[in-house]
Specification:
Elements: H1 9-25, H2 30-43, H3 49-75, H4 81-98, H5 102-105
């Protein structure tokens, strides 16, 4: 396996947030983020994957809930009402990706 990485909750959260920042800042594309997560997953020792999966799903769920709260808070204002319809489709796409961890799970 060569290199193994930490699967602590903090390490997983840091990895996710770094990739979110890279995507938001435009230094990585969605495809590059996906490839990065797949490379990261391959570095995790098979015995640690159950814990890593639990942590990644927890971090993604909490991140998604945070984004939804911000989204709902902003779109509660009339000024954002016109923009909401355009963003609903994109948010649904992101939710579907976050809810589908099958690409990470792989054989354990």
């Amino acid at each position: 396996m060569g290199q193994e990485i930490s699967v602590s909750y903090q390490a997983v959260k840091s990895k996710v947030y770094r990739l979110i920042d890279a995507l938001v800042e435009g230094s990585k594309t969605e495809g590059e983020v996906q490839e990065s997560m797949q490379r990261w997953w391959k570095l995790i020792h098979p015995a640690d994957r159950a814990v890593a999966q639990k942590y990644i799903l927890t971090v993604l769920a909490k991140s998604n809930a945070s984004l939804e709260a911000m989204n709902d808070g902003l779109f509660a204002f009339k000024e954002f009402a016109g923009v909401r319809e355009m963003e609903v489709a994109k948010a649904a796409k992101l939710q579907a990706r976050a809810a589908s961890p099958s690409q990470l799970a792989g054989p354990m």
